[in-house]
Amino acid sequence: MTHLLISTGEVSGDLQGSLLIKALHQEAKKRGVTLRVSALGGPRMQTAGAELLANTTPLGAIGLWEALPLVLPTLQLQGKARRWLASNPPDGVVLIDYMGGNTPLGRRVKRERPELPVLYYIAPQEWAFRMGEGGTTRLIGFSDQILAIFPEEARFYRERGAVVHWVGHPLLDTLGELPSRAAARQELAIAEDESLLLLLPASRKQELRWLLPPLAEAAARLQKICPKLKVIAPSAQPGFEQPLRDVIDRVGLKATVLNSDQGDRLRPTICAAADLALTKSGTVNLELALRGVPQVVGYRVSRLTALMARRLLRFQVEHISPVNLVLGERLVPELLQEQLQVDQLLAEALPLLQNPMARQEMLAGYGRLRALLGEPGVTQRAAALILDAVVKP
């Protein structure tokens, strides 16, 4: 039997981990390999066939100050993982994103069990968000192979001496066929003369505080300007529904809030029907782009975190949205920190709702983006490389 430990965190990591686990089981069956997967992850990974050691989906935070409440739970989790590794050594370790948890885990595994292959799939985006002079988290020192999802990520680590395989972006495996716009709008009861806005403000708890209010207020203002604008707000995590409703009610927005299960199930439908999204920065930007939804991106952290990042860590980036990072140009509008104001959101959003040329320009850019993300079959390629590394002849 081949035993793998897969470690990730946050909602997006749980999703990507679940897709990888399904591909690993398929690849193992094809090779006649009996596979056991243990995981630090979330419920999707458990459903996909992993033995869940701990749920890490609540442990995601952006920002220094925002992460403080998570320090103790993270240390407790690391202690649990250390004890588990001592009594249940796997044949290999796969790390998915989640730099804060995976960096100490990777170092420990390589220090205490150097013979174990460690593969990093979806590495932290330090190729894009480097501090100071641009060092790395030293993941090259404990990763035997890096399975890169972006071309620039592959180049960054290869130039620094890593063994890198570019597998492509796993979103390509999840898109499937969208329903037609007409069928999607009929299912959602959206009339021909109505427009649909998606409000996608948060996949982390802290984002509900910093991003939801300005995005929701901008949506409410848009609805006053465009009375036939419908709004759908899918919840990214269980428990986010009430905070969404509270802010939506407070700003006077008329919107349908979907729970996380509804949001997952209806994702292709609402994207096929949507005219615009007001959204946070993250993987969701790539999903919207690949599904052809124009978008305005916002992001903000606490003032203290922003001050420390700028003054002490010398954090500077040209772009923060993955769409713009991959393209190397400002295709989707980004409003960061002090720029994230309702008036500026309106100024960026209204042309995308009212000007067909502005919409078409963004959609054409999405076509260029798609060509840079590789080909479908990403998780199968990753699974094959992982089993090549860990299955003993």
Describe it.
- This protein is α/β, with parallel strands linked by helices.
- Helix content is 49%, strand content 16%.
- The chain has 18 helices and 13 strands.
- The chain has helices spanning 10-31, 43-47, 64-67, 71-87, 99-112, 139-142, 151-159, 181-187, 205-210, 212-225, 241-250, 260-273, 283-290, 303-311, 322-327, 342-354, 356-371, 378-390, and strands spanning 2-7, 35-41, 51-55, 92-96, 118-121, 145-148, 164-166, 195-200, 229-234, 256-258, 276-280, 295-299, 334-336.
- It has a seven-stranded parallel β-sheet, sandwiched between helices. A six-stranded parallel β-sheet has the order 10-9-8-11-12-13, with helices on both faces.
- Helix 2 links the parallel strand 2 (35-41) and strand 3.
- The two termini are 12 Å apart.
- The model has no long low-confidence stretch (mean pLDDT 89).
Total strand count, please? Answer: 13
Rounded to the nearest angstrom, the distance between the terminal CA atoms is: 12 Å
Rg, Å, rounded: 21 Å
Note the overall shape. Answer: elongated
Residue fraction in strands: 15-25%
Strand order of the largest sheet: 3-2-1-4-5-6-7
- What can be said about the biggest beta sheet? 7 strands, parallel
**Tally of alpha and pi helices:** 18
Give me the oligomer status.
Answer: single chain
Overall structural class, as computed from helix and strand content, comes to alpha/beta
Question: Approximately how much helix is present in the residues?
Answer: 40-55%
Mean pLDDT: 89
* Unreliable stretches covering 5 or more consecutive residues: none
